[in-house]
Amino acid sequence: MSMQHVIPQKRTRIWTAPQIILTAIIAIVSLSCVLPFINVAAISFSSKSAILRGAVSFWPVEFETTAYQAIFADPSMIRSMIFTVIITVVYTAFSMVLTILMAYPLTKKRLQGRKFFNMLALFTMYFSGGTIPIYLNIKELGLLDTPWSLILPGMLSTYNMIILKSFFSALPNELEEAAIIDGANDFQVLLQVYLPLSMASLATLTLFYAVGKWNSFQDALYYIQTKAYQPLQLKLYHIIKGSQAVDIAAMEGGSQTVASAVSESIEPATIIYATLPILIVYPFVQRYFVAGVTIGAVKG
What we know:
About 70% of the residues lie in helices and about 0% in strands. The chain is mainly α. The longest helix is centred in the last third of the chain and has 34 residues, at about 265-300.
């Protein structure tokens, strides 16, 4: 008996109206996020004359790298980049440790005063002492004009703690009971059971803390005077304020030589310079999200 080979036919995907509308909305939202960044990158590589006559859109006009040469030739920019990386890493590490150590006990019903501590944490989300009391507190503690003023205040986010607490609470209690029967204490349960199953959540919160600290500049604006302790975002803030001051002086009849001394591409180039490290790190963190979800699914 001869065997008859059946060639499978490719199925053509039929797009429904809701799918087309949803895809169009996603495309529009994505373009609205990506196109401004592309425009800033194009301006940073364009000449000053092309920028002033408005000829730059999404592709560099009269390509040049003068702005980036000026940035990398400035030792303070390199120093600010290194300092910002160090501050971000230290702040994120301390914040994650505090978040874990607070979220884990609050999931245990045997903790005395658990409801009080929960209410105390939630209170800080809705009420704050204000900028002036916080500044006076940091001043009394002797933290002004030190790197610790950029790390210690706001080191624990109640919002992130609640996210991690909810994730811990969703894990099966049988896992903890089995570990306790095997002789594990609370720290061993946390390190060997809860944390390996929470890698996706931990990676997400780590990214939240790191991006938040990387983009912050107001704390440095309030507490830092020494230029060696100025993070990169504060340098960018000063550059933008300086460019605005020059534009105002030029409009009011100020010296044109001063206005021409500021390159129009310095500001967007600094934005790209400050944003690029996060863009480089994010794809690796995104892979880590997938790996963390897989680990949790296998072990759970």
